[in-house]
Prior knowledge:
By secondary structure, the chain is mainly α. The chain has one domain. It is built from seven helices and no strands. Helix 2 runs antiparallel to helix 4.
Amino acid sequence: MSRLHREDHLVARIGWLRAAVLGANDGIVSTASLIVGVASSSAGRSEILIAGIAGMVAGAMSMAAGEYVSVSSQSDTEQADLARERQELSAQPDVEREELAQLYVKRGVEIALARRVADQLMEKDALEAHAREELGISEVTTARPVVAALTSALTFAVGAMMPLGTVVVAPAHSLLMAVSITSLLFLAVLGALGAKAGGADALKAAARATFWGAFAMALTAGIGALVGAAV
């Protein structure tokens, strides 16, 4: 007797995974860059901490607002398309049935079978069938603004706490170097973990995250040094 096996596809994670990796990565890079820039201007530990905490709070709120607005726009577009499709199904069900069948024909299904499949799917849930096959909207890919906003804000704050924690424990004379090195390590680990969760190449993701993190911190360190010298 044959048994069907369950397949867990990683694409189901794409919504929250994208927001989580983006938030944590931005939290590390933004806060570490801010800390490095302020530290390069010869500021004291208390000034660096204040700047870092302010950057963490502002960045988390900005991430939440940005994600909510952008994903809400996507959700609005999806709902408008679904409303239009619902109206077309009500006004021209036969046309929509043939349209669905032709989508399967384009994928290589024989026309008679494609029409039988379209009939059965539309009897079960016509809107769901057209949303998935015609519009590309499914349970996995549908926009969730609140989830994206909360995930981004929370992971940004978690990411920002890593360089902030280094400021607290690192010796004053090596604070700049300690924040830079530990932040790059955090970025490498985050990149690898995010890639592993999504089934991608961990080494490539870690290298990419580390490179751009180093670039951002080097740039802000240079600006901080110039401003500090000028002041």
